[in-house]
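Cross-check.
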Amino acid sequence: MCSVFDVSDHAGMERFLDTYGIRGAGHMIYGRRRRPTQQVSIVTTRKGSAEIENAIWHLYLERHGDTWRPHKKYWSINSNWKKLDSRPEYRKSRCLIPATAWVESQGGKYPVEFSYGEPFFFCGLYKIWGNLLSCSIITLDSHPATKRYHEKSLPMIAPNRPDFVESWLNCTELTEDFGPFLKPSVEYSGKILTAHPLLRATSTEYIGDPIPVIE
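Predicted model, tokenized:
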């Protein structure tokens, strides 16, 4: 389960977004160790073209007075790929979540920071609650090469392909073409995934050198 991720402003994020023609880079929320229920930046096309919007990282919200807050009964920072067909958001409100790294651990122990050394997108879902947006990250089965770090799952990362990005954000109800991408992979744009051991999952203090994650 991905529950901590980074959005570094020193990793060419604006150039990355510009490559895909995504507007609103000036509204990006940057920061290391972004956590559940915080505001994060997502990409949607709900206003007609791909642009940055901000959302609460927790898909299901509940009303609290005059506003909304994360639903206490439904922990929903991630959406399991096996349940996507039953989620209307998968057909109607897909999003992308810009990131530069994420953190995983085995039951809270032996955390590592995963990175490709360049920006990428998590594939996600979003919902609208009044004038607020919320989101979740889609998780796949774990990959054989990453099970030693986190045995349960691996986040779904969009391939570095404009046609995929356009298709994912064009929220028609036709999802059959996404089937091949619902399989875990450690490859991204020819880059090798690295795992950098951490002192704690939420810290930025490393305790060793980056380790290449090889299939």
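The chain has a mean pLDDT of 94. The chain is about 10% helix and 40% strand. Passed to J.P. for a second look.
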